[in-house]
Amino acid sequence: MSLETVSTNRAFGGTQGVYKHASKATGTEMTFAVYVPDHAEGAKLPVLFYLSGLTCTHANVMEKGEYRAACAEHGVIFVCPDTSPRGDDVPDDEGYDFGKGAGFYVNATQEPWATHFQMRDYVENELPALIAANFPVDIERQGITGHSMGGHGALTISLRNPGRYKSTSAFAPIVSPLNCPWGEKALTGYIGADKAAWRAYDACALIADGARLPDLLVDQGTSDNFLEEQLKTHLLDEAVAAADMPATIRMQEGYDHSYYFISTFMADHVAWHAERLNA
Amino acid sequence: MSLETVSTNRAFGGTQGVYKHASKATGTEMTFAVYVPDHAEGAKLPVLFYLSGLTCTHANVMEKGEYRAACAEHGVIFVCPDTSPRGDDVPDDEGYDFGKGAGFYVNATQEPWATHFQMRDYVENELPALIAANFPVDIERQGITGHSMGGHGALTISLRNPGRYKSTSAFAPIVSPLNCPWGEKALTGYIGADKAAWRAYDACALIADGARLPDLLVDQGTSDNFLEEQLKTHLLDEAVAAADMPATIRMQEGYDHSYYFISTFMADHVAWHAERLNA
């Protein structure tokens, strides 16, 4: 599991790096970003994974997410994977919401996607091991967050792996792929028409089926163009209420789906994770 | 002086807007960004102008500059103009360091540049009047900053207009166009070979010729690839020392020329300006 350093930049008293490696899970080269605050020699820091939304690479949040000040303050390593396999031999779709840039954090079972679109395996297993082997992280202290499709990824990965993530949050997540057009298209395409199989990739269904988190933070803008048709935050409200699961789901007046929204609440999320990761 | 709103996004308890207008100074449409923190009805806020560097538009700092948290905290309006006129009828150069994206904040006198490349007039006169007429600013409380070519712009505009700017700072500025390849190319092209005319566009020459600022903050990364050949911070050190002009010029270990550097020190600069603008 060797890494190639693409770039490093000094930032906020730490190092913002970009790295690439040959991924076993996806069978492609994968690129990701890691921010490491300066720390005492030999120290191991907690790590927060951020899963990006549709159309994004590792670079969007790295450039616009404004996480470094808070990560430096709290001593948290911040990891930003890509949203899909890339490369000329990776199949794609004409839409922005399927194929490259839209891996949906699933293990595809349908052709031609199954060969490379194994983003669940990549983010759940390969990447954390790679991070643990190559960066000064205490892998017992992992948190996970994400935006939109990446919020869906964060919620479902954490719900499927009880106890692995000490903290879970999301920005404007897709809360139920079973109940929105983005989810219908992606899950039909990647894992087929049998909706029983979709439940492992649906935060609301996972909660209804018994999965629990000790705590959860979600921010959602009220002026988000995707709220009504795709994100449907109210379904998560209903799911956690029915399950009596602790969750803080905040509707943020006037905010949209952009990085202007994400960056506004990023420091809050990093602090929230740090409190749990450093507990 | 009517404005057209291109976009607005809620961010950090304020509004990040992008606007365009027909500029008299440049004879083109000009686009700029303004961040306005929420404020009491009828309040007038201080304003900080940020001049960008080579190749940038208004968007680079808007996306990567991380100024909104500090501006919201201190109640400062932040204005980001473009770096040159744009459009099909605007002449350009093959290099990234001349023509479009490289106006150098001068009034060009040489053809074919003179018609549109009047960025000094635009930034010194037209834009502040436009901002004063359309945003809740107290135009008596203006500060100015910028990066690289924009740091040059901020320093020279402030030095040429004593008393107008209550605060002046720069990130990795070109301190002496008379003494670097970027300056040689741009000033020869825009205003001709007579170097006497260049002194109005050279911070070190302006100081040597008697211009003074009450105070100045400059940050410069020690790992900046352009430091030795183009930026030459030591010339500014020498100029302010010879003039006995107060200035805080900080060499920042390991930082480069990128927005990772700028964003790291942005909150410091905004706070420094706010202290003087709110005094």
From TrEMBL, chains A, B:
The keyword Ion transport does not apply. It catalyses: S-formylglutathione + H2O = formate + glutathione + H(+). The active site is at S148 (charge relay system), D224 (charge relay system), H257 (charge relay system). GO terms for molecular function: carboxylic ester hydrolase activity; S-formylglutathione hydrolase activity. Signal peptide: none annotated. Its EC number is 3.1.2.12. One of its GO terms (biological process) is formaldehyde catabolic process. The keyword Hydrolase applies. InterPro entries: AB_hydrolase_fold, Esterase-like, S-formylglutathione_hydrol. GO terms for cellular component: cytosol. Keywords: Hydrolase, Serine esterase. Belongs to the esterase D family. Serine hydrolase involved in the detoxification of formaldehyde. PANTHER family: S-FORMYLGLUTATHIONE HYDROLASE. This is S-formylglutathione hydrolase. It comes from Aurantiacibacter xanthus. The lineage of its organism: Bacteria, Pseudomonadati, Pseudomonadota, Alphaproteobacteria, Sphingomonadales. The gene is fghA.
